[in-house]
Amino acid sequence: MKKTDIGVGFYLMAAIVFLIVPVPSMLLDILLALNISIAMIVLFNALFTQEALNMSSFPTLLLFTTVFRISLNVSSTRLILTQGYAGEVVEVFGQFVGSGSLVVGTIVFFILVLVQFMVINKGSERVSEVTARFTLDAMPGKQMAIDADLNTGAINDMQAKERREKIQAESTFFGAMDGATKYVKGDAITGLIITVVNFAGGMITGIMLQGLTTTEALNKYIILTIGDGLVSQIPSLMISLATGILVTKVSKEADIGDILIGQLFSIPKVLYMVGISLILLGTLTPLPDLIFDIYGVIFILCGRIIANHIEIASVESEVSEEESSAEEIRRPENVNSLLQVDPIELEFGYGIIPLADVNQGGDLLDRVVMIRRQIALELGCVVPMIRLRDNIQLNPNQYLIKIKGIPVSEGEILFDHYMAMNPGYVEEEITGIPTFEPSFHLPAIWITESQRERAESMGYTVVDPPSIIATHLTEVIRNHLDELLTRQDVQNLINNVKEANETLIGELVPKLLGVGEIQKVLQNLLREGISIRDLTTIFETLADYATTTHDTDVLTEYVRQSLKRAISNKFFPINEMSSVITLDPKIEQEIMNSVKQTEQGAYLTLDPEKTQQIVQSLKAETTKLENMGRSPIIVTSPIVRMYFKRLTEDYMEDLIVVSYNEIENNVELQSVGMVTA
Fold first, then answer.
1. What's the whole-model pTM score?
2. What is the number of structural domains in the chain?
3. Which residues touch 387 (CB under 8 Å, ≥6 apart)?
4. What is the pLDDT of residues 478-510, one digit of tens each?
């Protein structure tokens, strides 16, 4: 156990013990001095801490000090009523503050109690309530701001985590402070009640038990009561003041002394006006002219001094800026910063800025967050940060999508229009500006807000500009997700699986396969739109077959066969006959005969003329399926699948090629064509 824990435990236990066990007057003096010291420490810490969270333990500290102070108050009350003496500290406080007068001491004491209870405690309690409520209400907005900064690349994951933790800490702290202020209020009320009890009990004890006269009892017990009340109320006042300072602290950049002085005495003309006003009051009224004139002159001189400092600071600032500019010109360009390439960038013209500006009602940042979430659920891969920036070189309504700094797609929208697309069955036409949907290059029409309801009633699919950009961005990310998957991403995925499958990862990495080889397998899957979310199954399959081959293409095929349930669910509807295209066995045999094995992997040596014949036949068959409104799917034997996909991907990139081993037994297939040559 730590020494600090033992000390805190003794402090709290002492408070409980003193409520029961009588304390000698000498020990009480020591404890009262300690109580005053602790109150001072708390007050000055609250005053000079730069941020409220730096004293996150304050609510607990408030409870401990309150209990300790009340226990001392009970102990002093016991001594007053039993011995008529509570130590030197209590007696000195009673005599010194009252200046030997019972009336003065009583008035000063009650003024002190009223100030603490009515001003400081009430104010601190109200500020705590409001701060706690507004802190909780602002949490969703702060969370969204963090997500927005994270998605735009302004902060990294670690910084976002720190900010979220800080927001949670703030809500917890101010919520606790809202309740802790009740301790301070209750302490003030308790102190006042104890004071009344001390006075009444002292008078009864002095007159009835000690045989004192009323005057003697008054002189003796009023002084002790005032002293006891002051000795407890002054530390309580300091703690209350510390509470008020802490809950009203707003600055995080400087000490409170610098802030107060800087804000009060930073405008020279204010000091000039105050100084002249004081001089006029001293001259034109019966007020003491000497005092007011001196204050007026002092404020005018202070204003002049501050004005001189401002002028000097302004000149120094200008010189510093010129020197910085010159130094920047002379400094060799830091090219390292120019070498950084963002994985994904969305650049847009100034006309699209309102869509990304939260202050103008834009929700593009929120949509980017949803895109990353959607891709993660759909394909099991974490999309890198998407940086959004405006580009004045683009047309006002144009946007550009870049992958690793290279433009891969672009589009153009009309900010105050909607895009209407005919699903194929709408015969009635609607007037508008002809265009093409940027994601799938489908014909579309730009329509106005007034035409939207009519277009929807006619059967058109109507999409707003933010949805157009979000859909386009999603498709681009899907198509290039394999390029975005880095070794570090793969390592992070491995670490996530390792938490629940330590044996599997221990066997697979790095004994059987390296991170780079696993990366290539996952990239192969993502390239064809296969989800890698079921990493446990993928790694189990790799561990099974990595002992026989390290060819990542072959391992990919084994993994695809293990994921046949997911593949079947993705490409073949349940309880529905699926139309597919098959491959002529002769073609399959020719492909296999043309495969050449090397140390770097296998490649095809098929005759170019034969390749063109296969591609032409493939296009003819896929056109039939497209005319039927179905996505073209080619089914091949397992050994041929990857080679046929490699053969055709340069001509038909989006072609779906699956093997018989990747299809569930309950899937019903209907061959509507065969690729021949």
1. 0.57
2. 5
3. 152, 153, 342, 344, 345, 346
4. 999 999 999 999 999 999 999 899 999 999 998
